[in-house]
Design brief:
627 residues; twelve-stranded parallel beta sheet; mainly beta; 15-stranded mixed beta sheet; Jelly Rolls; 2 helices
């Protein structure tokens, strides 16, 4: 197809136009300040068939207005030259609310990847000369369906408290307008004085400044933020996704302790509204919480790495994940790795309700695994795993040197399972009380923290003395790597275990050496102990002494931890109906399974029979990994 090159004069500007045959390419000279989509393309309105090229080189503020792709996106991008010539837009205090502004724009794809030699072909700089803009990139007016990608945004020389990387907002509009359908991806935003991104309204108390919704924020790098990494305020439409982003070092120029209202949160959802799916993000060294949910019903927060967050050691700010305010309900937090938070790994406050957290790996948090109100931990295989020493998780690479970039947190293929107590049987116990109270040994694995195993005290004098022990058959073989022991609850501490030993074996009584031994803290919190994995189906807990040197032993609950079985039976990378078909073939075929095949791998607990416990593991992994 024949191509032509023509010159067009519009509003006194000389434009070079290349006709591609399917539409035209229009160039924006470095002297241009405002580009009007109603007239820019050959004197007529630009359409999705047209491409707008910003000439390379340095320039001042640049505003695009009234572009409308009418259902298909108009592309605005950087020039592709040899040698490469980056577009550098630096604040000169002239047009627009931002250094780069898009106003009254719809269906616009603004991207800086037209030159393969440049990772970010457009660089936007918001500095102090002569008057800084609140947003380096500002979207305002009745704008929707906007894409922003492959841009570098830099507020290094901005000394004011504004200095946002990407911002939506327009107080000339009411809340009736929603900045709808935004995709912001593969940008590098750094050294802002306030937020890396601020999408949504500023003042919920008045009827101005539009809401935001239907956004996809992914694969961005945000580092060295003066305050927040990302803030989403007043989400008024569904299908919102925040994923694969890196947020690093926030709260660098604001200190909550001195009265600032800017708290250095990594990712924040705020105000009542629709939910967001927040996943696969890496958030490091935030002054406030790594992720803060302050609004929305049914938010999902999962598979994130939240590292060294909450450096501000306050109740409301020092946590890995924080749920905040009564408008936050039914949030699910699962399969996150939360390490070295200053306070709790997960925290709920201000009447949040109905929030579930499960299968999170939480390590070396200043106060503990989770706390506050409105939170419910998962049970059985859905419990969180907590280690005071991060090294105990067995991550592929863990340096503990403060530089998380060198660490490899691969552990998802070996998540820990709290073995369901159903199917357990008591092998033996040296002593139990059955007359003066219900102190039977089986109470220690009945799932009820209010019942206890208590050694005998009513029929003998003196009472049987230490050591005391309990032996349990788990009903199948497991790759055992730890246990949890809950002391008796209530006002009486009698019998709480002080020194202990823990053993694992197969079917025989050959226990060998203890896999773990030590001293429990003298309190009523649940104790977790980890050790090197050992295959077995029987466990033995030996109480060597009692916290007050009394002769008794008591325990409310014992749970055993194992490596999660692999339920991808046919090894195709999915847990689906094909795996279920294999399990069904062997269903309840008693004692049909044996080493090494174990019924084609369907007998996950190696009990000899594919039964309800195997189905429970399968269902759990179906929900987590299936398609």
């Amino acid at each position: 197809m024949k191509k032509t090159l023509v010159l067009v004069i519009v509003a006194g500007m000389l434009l070079v136009v290349a006709d591609s045959g399917n539409g035209s390419i229009y160039y924006v000279p470095t002297s241009t300040k405002t580009v009007d989509g109603d007239t820019f393309c050959g004197g007529s309105a630009c359409t999705s068939a047209d491409t707008i090229i910003i000439e390379g080189g340095a320039r001042g503020n640049l505003r695009f207005q009234d572009f409308n792709g009418s259902g298909s996106y108009i592309t605005i991008t950087n020039e592709n030259t040899n040698p490469a010539s980056k577009v550098v837009i630096t604040n000169d205090g002239t047009v627009g609310f931002g250094v780069l502004s898009l106003t009254n724009c719809k269906y616009v794809d603004f991207r800086g990847d037209n030159d393969g030699d440049l990772a970010y072909g457009i660089h936007v700089i918001n500095d102090d000369t002569p008057a800084p803009r609140s947003g380096a990139i500002r979207v305002y007016g009745e704008s929707d369906h906007i894409k922003l990608s492959y841009l570098e945004i830099d507020c290094t020389n901005n000394s004011t408290t504004s200095g946002i990387g990407i911002q939506t907002g327009d107080k000339s509009l009411t809340n009736a307008w929603t900045f709808d359908t935004f995709e912001i991806h593969h940008n590098y935003i750094h050294d802002t004085r306030y937020s890396g991104m601020y999408l949504g309204h500023n003042d919920p108390g008045v009827n101005n400044d539009p809401y935001v919704g239907t956004f996809s924020i992914h694969d961005n790098i945000l580092e060295n933020m003066g305050s927040y990494g990302m803030t989403f305020k007043g989400v008024k439409a569904a299908n919102n996704y925040i994923y694969n982003n890196i947020v690093r070092n926030t709260g660098l120029v604001c200190v909550h302790l001195t009265g600032s209202s800017k708290h250095g949160i990594g990712v924040q959802m705020f105000e009542p509204g629709y939910m967001a799916d927040i996943y696969n993000n890496r958030i490091e060294y935030t002054m406030g919480p790594g992720i803060k949910i302050g609004g929305g019903v049914g938010n999902l927060v999962h598979h994130n790495e939240i590292l060294g967050c909450g450096t501000c050691d306050e109740v409301g700010w020092g946590h890995g994940i924080e749920l905040h305010r009564s408008v936050t309900t039914n949030t699910e937090m699962y399969d996150n790795i939360i390490l070295q938070s200053t306070r709790y790994g997960i925290y709920g406050r201000y009447e949040t309700s109905g929030n579930i957290h499960k299968r999170n790996l939480i390590g070396d948090s200043g106060i503990g695994e989770w706390g506050g109100i409105g939170l419910t931990e998962g049970t059985c295989a859905d419990v969180n795993i907590y280690h005071a020493d991060v090294a105990d998780f067995g991550f592929k690479v863990w340096s503990d040197d403060g530089d998380y970039s060198n660490d490899d947190f691969s552990l998802r293929d070996t998540l820990l399972l709290q073995i369901p107590q159903i199917g357990w049987t008591l092998v033996c116990v040296d002593s139990e009380e059955t007359e003066g109270e219900d102190g039977r040994a089986i109470n220690s694995f009945d799932g009820d923290p209010d019942t206890i195993w208590h050694t005998e005290w009513s029929l003998t004098d003196p009472d049987p003395c230490h050591p005391h022990e309990i032996q349990i058959d788990l009903g199948g073989f497991y790759d055992i790597c730890g246990f949890r022991q809950l002391p008796r609850q209530g006002e009486y501490p009698n019998g709480m275990i002080k020194d202990y030993e823990f053993y694992v074996s197969g079917d025989s009584d050959n226990w060998g050496t203890a896999v773990a031994s030590g001293t429990f803290a003298n309190d009523q919190t649940e104790k977790q102990v980890s050790f090197d994995r050992k295959l077995g189906r029987r466990v033995r807990l030996v109480a060597i002494s009692e916290v007050n040197d009394n002769p008794w032993t008591t325990m409310a609950e014992l749970n055993v931890l194992a490596i999660q079985p692999d339920t991808d039976i046919n090894n195709d990378g999915k847990v689906n109906i094909e795996d279920f078909a294999i399990l069904a073939v062997w269903w309840e075929n008693e004692n049909a399974c044996s080493s090494p095949g174990w019924c084609e791998g369907a007998d996950f607990d190696m009990s000899g029979t594919v039964d309800m416990s195997d189905l429970a593991y399968f269902a759990e992994n179906w929900l987590r990994h299936g398609k």
